[in-house]
């Protein structure tokens, strides 16, 4: 079998695997993102931590299966390096087993580690929404923005507590950033400022599209309403014209 034929079969097999496991992986991704938010805000119980580890293992298995089947490993890794990073980051938790790392946890290292987790979660959110929604319309952007806002708020609460005293406050603050309105509070930590910058860039890039899409939707509804009114008016004019014609014919017959 020649190389081109083999590559075609690998691509077809990879497509079939993606089609088969897309829906289960979407559900697991949603659970994974929820667990990340809970971990940042409240911490995970042993049971939830086990569930998170199991899901992480499934993602790793899926990644290496796709890597093994992919006809060009370098191209696949180049296109999915963020996914590989998001799968590698949880492995750093192993260092918490060592006594020396407990001292490091009191430093900014743990915040930097969590910042990487937040960014990798953004990547997982994008991939989840892209897979779940085939069309890249307003619904896609709104759902993705809601996920990024929720995860970003968890990250900001982790970095800026007690400046942001609760997840609700952090969510409100992040939502204000996402709407480009802003807030009086300014992050104190380096990680919080970095995350704020990235959220602001996303908001700047996407908020104009959301505003334009909503305006287009409203204008479209207004045009639809106007068109409906014009159609009804035309029908009413035709009815009146028919009635006038009928009365005219009756008058002519009476005159005769």
Task: List the keywords.
single chain; 256 residues; mainly alpha; 9 helices; flat
Task: Describe this structure in a few short sentences.
The protein has a domain at 1-132: Up-down Bundle (Four Helix Bundle (Hemerythrin (Met), subunit A)). It is built from nine helices and no strands. It has helices spanning 3-41, 46-69, 73-79, 81-88, 99-104, 109-132, 138-160, 167-178, 190-255.
What is the fold's blueprint, element by element?
Elements: H1 3-41, H2 46-69, H3 73-79, H4 81-88, H5 99-104, H6 109-132, H7 138-160, H8 167-178, H9 190-255
Helix pairs in contact: 1-2, 1-6, 1-7, 4-6, 6-7, 7-8, 7-9
Structural summary, described in words:
This protein is mainly alpha-helical. It has a domain at 1-132: Up-down Bundle (Four Helix Bundle (Hemerythrin (Met), subunit A)), CATH 1.20.120. 82% of the residues lie in helices and 0% in strands. It has helices at residues 3-41, 46-69, 73-79, 81-88, 99-104, 109-132, 138-160, 167-178, 190-255. Helix 1 (3-41) runs antiparallel to helix 2, helix 1 (3-41) crosses helix 7 and helix 7 (138-160) runs antiparallel to helix 9 (190-255).
């Amino acid at each position: 079998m020649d190389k081109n034929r083999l590559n075609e079969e690998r691509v077809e097999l990879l497509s079939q695997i993606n089609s088969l496991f897309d829906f289960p992986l979407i559900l697991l991704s949603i659970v994974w993102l929820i667990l990340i938010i809970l971990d940042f805000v409240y911490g995970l119980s042993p049971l939830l931590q086990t569930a998170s580890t199991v899901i992480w293992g499934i993602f790793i298995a899926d990644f290496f299966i796709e890597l093994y089947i992919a006809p060009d490993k370098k191209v696949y890794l180049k296109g999915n390096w963020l996914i590989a990073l998001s799968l590698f980051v949880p492995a750093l938790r192993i260092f918490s087993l060592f006594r020396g790392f407990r001292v490091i946890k009191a430093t900014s290292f743990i915040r930097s580690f969590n910042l990487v987790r937040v960014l990798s979660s953004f990547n997982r959110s994008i991939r989840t929404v892209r897979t779940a929604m085939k069309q890249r319309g307003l619904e896609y952007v709104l759902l993705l923005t809601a996920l990024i806002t929720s995860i970003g708020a968890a990250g900001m609460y982790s970095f800026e507590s007690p400046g942001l005293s609760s997840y609700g406050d952090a969510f409100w603050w992040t939502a204000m950033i996402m709407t480009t309105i802003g807030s009086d509070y300014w992050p104190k930590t380096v990680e919080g400022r970095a995350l704020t910058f990235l959220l602001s860039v996303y908001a700047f890039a996407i908020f104009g599209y959301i505003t334009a899409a909503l305006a287009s939707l409203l204008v479209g509804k207004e045009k639809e309403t106007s068109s409906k009114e014009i159609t009804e008016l035309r029908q009413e004019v035709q009815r009146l014209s028919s009635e006038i014609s009928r009365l005219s014919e009756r008058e002519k017959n009476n005159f005769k």
